[in-house]
C-alpha cells in the first residue's frame, strides 16, 4: 500500500482525539522535507483568545504538552498571529504566511462553526500546488473523522459529553498534574479534582404540566448554564434524563464548594420561558480515592441526601461522612463474595 494511504488507514483507526491528532502530525510530516508540524489549541483566558502548541513533532516523534492550557508557558495571544486571526474570523479553510525562508500554512479544525484547534505546517521552501492539494486531502479526512468522533461523544439534545465518554475523561483528568499546587504546601485545603452530580428538582412535574418539549428546552438551557458556569478545562456531561456530572479541575475545597454553590444560585435565579423558576440539587466529592464508579457513588449519596432534605442545595460527601450523615461505601476490594 502507498505510504500515504497506510498512514490514513492508521489515522482513522484511532478512537481518541489526541491519538488521532498525533497520527495526523506524523502523516503530514511525510509530505515534505524539513517540515515542522504542530497542533495549536485555542482557548479563552483573561477575556482574550489565546493559542498554544498542544502537540508537535521533533525528529519524527510526536510530543504532547503536559501543561493545562491556561498555565502553559508557551501560550500566546492569538491576535499576535494576524493571518490566522483573520482566517478564523472569516471562517476560512486555510491561512498562509510566507517570508524568505519560512513558509507557514495554518489549517483550522472546524467542528460545526467553531475551531478549537488548528494544524500549523512550516517549511523552508514555498508550498507547491501539488503539495498543498495532498496536505488538504489528508487534512480533510482528519477533520471529517474528528467530527465523527466528536458526534459519537456528544449527547444529541444538549451537545454535552455523553456518559460513555466519562471514564476516559475521568482517567485523563485524575492522572494529570494539578496546577497551582505547591509540593511544599502541606495545608489541608490544597487544589485537587472534584466530581459533582447535579439533578434538576421535580423535573417530572415540568414534563407533566408543560409537556416534553418544554422539558427538553429546560434541559438545553440548564446545559447552557453549565457550559457558561464552569471553566474550559473542567468537563460537563449529561448522564441521561435530568442528571448532569461535572469534573472540576485543580480547585481547593473552598473554590469547589463556591463553584457548585454559584451554579445552584445561577439556576435558581434564571427565568425559564413559560415555566419560571426551577432548582437543582448537587452532591459532590473529591476524585482522590477510588474507581470512577466509587467516586460517582459517593457524589450520588450526597445528592440523594440533598433530595431527601429539602432539595435546592449543595452537599459535600466527605463532610457528611465525618458528621455521620452518610455511611461509607464498601469498596470493590472489600466485597466478600462467599
Ligand atoms: N423532556 C424530557 N424529559 C426527560 C428526558 N429524560 C428523562 N426525562 C424525564 O425526567 C423525569 C425524571 O423524573 P424523576 O426521576 O421522577 O425525578 P424528579 O421529578 O426530577 O424528582 P426529584 O429528582 O426527586 O426532584 C421523568 O419524568 C422522565 O420522563 C428527556 O430527554 N427529555
TrEMBL record:
EC id: 2.7.7.65
Gene3D superfamilies per the UniProt record, alphabetical: 3.30.70.270
Sequence ranges assigned to domain GGDEF in this UniProt record: 191-319
Catalytic activity from the UniProt record: 2 GTP = 3',3'-c-di-GMP + 2 diphosphate
InterPro entries the record matches: Diguanylate_Cyclase, GGDEF_dom, Nucleotide_cyclase, Rev_trsase/Diguanyl_cyclase
GO CC annotation: plasma membrane
Highest taxon above the source species: Bacteria
GO biological process, one term: negative regulation of bacterial-type flagellum-dependent cell motility
Enzyme class, broadest EC rank: transferase
GO molecular function list: diguanylate cyclase activity
Name this polypeptide is given: diguanylate cyclase
Amino acid at each position: 500500500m502507498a505510504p500515504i494511504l497506510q498512514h490514513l488507514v492508521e489515522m482513522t483507526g484511532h478512537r481518541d482525539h489526541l491519538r488521532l491528532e498525533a497520527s495526523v502530525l506524523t502523516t503530514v510530516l511525510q509530505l515534505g522535507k524539513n517540515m515542522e508540524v504542530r497542533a495549536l489549541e485555542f482557548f479563552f483566558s483573561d477575556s482574550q483568545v489565546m493559542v498554544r502548541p498542544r502537540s508537535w513533532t521533533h525528529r519524527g516523534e510526536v510530543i504532547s504538552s503536559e501543561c493545562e492550557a491556561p498555565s502553559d508557558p508557551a501560550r500566546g495571544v492569538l491576535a499576535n498571529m494576524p493571518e490566522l486571526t483573520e482566517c478564523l474570523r472569516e471562517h476560512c479553510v486555510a491561512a498562509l504566511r510566507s517570508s524568505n525562508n519560512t513558509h507557514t500554512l495554518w489549517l483550522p479544525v472546524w467542528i460545526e462553526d467553531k475551531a478549537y484547534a488548528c494544524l500549523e505546517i512550516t517549511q523552508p521552501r514555498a508550498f507547491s500546488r501539488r503539495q498543498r492539494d495532498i496536505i488538504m486531502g489528508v487534512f480533510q479526512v482528519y477533520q471529517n473523522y474528528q467530527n465523527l468522533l466528536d458526534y459519537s461523544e456528544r449527547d444529541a439534545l444538549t451537545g454535552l459529553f455523553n456518559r460513555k465518554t466519562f471514564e476516559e475523561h475521568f482517567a485523563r483528568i485524575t492522572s494529570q498534574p494539578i496546577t497551582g499546587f505547591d509540593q511544599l504546601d502541606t495545608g489541608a485545603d490544597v487544589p485537587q479534582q472534584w466530581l459533582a452530580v447535579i439533578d434538576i428538582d421535580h423535573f417530572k412535574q415540568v414534563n407533566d404540566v408543560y409537556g416534553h418539549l418544554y422539558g427538553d428546552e429546560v434541559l438545553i438551557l440548564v446545559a447552557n448554564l453549565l457550559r457558561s458556569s464552569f471553566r474550559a478545562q473542567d468537563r460537563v456531561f449529561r448522564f441521561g434524563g435530568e442528571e448532569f456530572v461535572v469534573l472540576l479541575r485543580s480547585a481547593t475545597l473552598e473554590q469547589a464548594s463556591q463553584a457548585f454553590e454559584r451554579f445552584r444560585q445561577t439556576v435558581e435565579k434564571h427565568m425559564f420561558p413559560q415555566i419560571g423558576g426551577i432548582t437543582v440539587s448537587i452532591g459532590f466529592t473529591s476524585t482522590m480515592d477510588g474507581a470512577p464508579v466509587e467516586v460517582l457513588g459517593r457524589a450520588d449519596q450526597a445528592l440523594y441526601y440533598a433530595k431527601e432534605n429539602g432539595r435546592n442545595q449543595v452537599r459535600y460527601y466527605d463532610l457528611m461522612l465525618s458528621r455521620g450523615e452518610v455511611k461509607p461505601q464498601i469498596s470493590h476490594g472489600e466485597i466478600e463474595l462467599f
